[in-house]
Design goal:
By secondary structure, the protein is of the alpha/beta class. The protein contains 17 helices and 13 strands.
Length: 405
């Protein structure tokens, strides 16, 4: 597979990805999805930890790796050795972007800090992802996404009030940081291309904590303005009704969101009780919020009498937002998601053809694509070091013998 197979609005953009786990590599995945030439540097022998991660494995191999490393080139390089760091420096010198998610200070300790890198490559955009950012009292703390989610206030909002705050089920903090890092790279590229920028790059400082805080909606301003601290409320948002999970006759759940006045009137009609739409207890947003529990009980009694498919069809007919609570099997089988290529099939070396999530967002003229799944460890070492640094086969073989690549 060649880089020529990658197309998209970022084609030709040279990215070096350093670090491991999720946040930095997810940024690299997003850039690679749209054509960026992403070279991932991995420790010889072991590679990125993501090669081992995932709840369910096949033949002992991660099914997460084909997704988070798709469209990337893998180069093995031991950054703990001075010669390995020198090779990295040379690769970064001719790159547009460096993405790293080491603990702050690591690059500096290696002699690869921003001052060093930008002196040699003034146009470099350095995306730095960490738990708490590059400055401040917590900067040098170890910081995983789970800790950041807790400290930034997200975990305290999840679950039911009589139980400990649960995990969301995904590494949402890391993924949000990856998205903001990719956005930061694009903003920095736009700034670098401006007429008065003279091709200058900049540092994109992404903290996982701040990425989580960015999606806290009105939680902070509510506290500031009223002193109210939003807590765990289970499957509802207090005062917003009806918007909840409701049981079905076939033992599943349906989520119905009918909390706008007009939509609630349509729900009432679908229930065969149009008079509820003008009932003073339910006719307005505020009234429904005050009678939330009794309204949810009433809707649950209705949904429990019908199967999921019947309810989805009926509510669609009446223009009421509703849908099933899908697991992975439901997502992969969904006709709409397949039609839009939100679920795609990709050929892999280890597993044959597997399904994975497609590319978001969808661009009409310059869409991204998945040219290949996550590569084998060091699959592109010879090609990249030969093409970019001019190293010959004998030199690369010597580096391999000494454990540098």
């Amino acid at each position: 597979m060649s880089r020529g197979e990658l197309q998209g609005p970022l084609a030709g953009l040279k990215v070096i990805e350093m670090g491991s786990f999720i946040a930095g590599p997810f940024c690299g995945q997003l850039l690679a999805d749209f054509g960026a030439d992403v070279v991932k540097l991995e420790p010889p022998g072991t590679g990125d930890a993501m090669r081992q991660w995932g709840v369910a494995k096949r033949d002992g191999k991660s099914l997460w790796w084909p997704v988070i490393a798709r469209n990337k080139q893998s180069v093995t390089l031991d950054l703990r050795q001075p010669e390995g760091r020198e090779i990295a420096r040379r690769l970064i010198a001719e790159a547009d972007v460096l993405v790293e998610n080491f603990r702050p200070g690591t690059l500096e300790d290696w002699g690869l800090g921003p001052d060093v890198l930008k002196a040699e490559n003034p146009g470099l955009i350095l995306a730095r992802v960490s738990g708490f950012g590059q400055t401040g009292p917590y900067a040098r703390r170890a910081g995983f996404g789970s800790v950041a989610e807790a400290m930034a206030g997200m975990r305290g909002l999840a679950g039911f009030p009589d139980r400990p705050p649960p995990r969301v089920g995904l590494s949402i903090g890391d993924s949000l940081a990856g998205v903001f890092a990719a956005m930061g790279v694009l903003l920095a590229l736009r700034a670098r291309d401006a007429a008065d920028a003279k091709g200058r790059g900049q540092i994109v400082d992404v903290a996982i904590t701040e990425s989580v805080m960015a999606v806290l909606e009105s939680v902070i301003s509510e506290y500031s303005g009223t002193g109210a601290v939003r807590g765990r409320t289970g499957s509802i948002l207090p005062g917003v009704a009806p918007s909840n999970l409701y049981p079905t006759a076939d033992g599943t759940w349906i989520l119905i969101g009918a909390n706008a006045d007009g939509i609630f009137r349509r729900l009432a009609a679908a229930m065969g009780e149009p008079e509820l739409g003008t009932d003073e207890r339910y006719a307005t947003h505020g009234a429904r919020g005050r009678h939330q529990d009794e309204l949810d009980t009433r809707i649950a009694a209705w949904t429990a009498g019908y199967g999921l498919d019947h309810l989805v069809t009926l509510l669609e007919t009446h223009g009421v937002p509703a849908g099933p609570v899908n697991d992975a099997a439901g997502v992969v089988a969904d006709a709409h998601l397949n039609e839009r290529d939100a679920v795609i099939e990709v050929e892999t070396a280890d597993f044959g053809t597997i399904a994975m999530q497609g590319i978001a967002p969808r661009l009409s003229e310059t869409p991204g694509r998945v040219a290949w799944a996550g590569p084998a460890l060091g699959e592109h070492t010879e090609t990249v070091l030969g093409d970019r640094l001019g190293l010959g086969p004998a030199e690369i073989a010597d580096l391999r013998r000494r454990g540098i690549v």
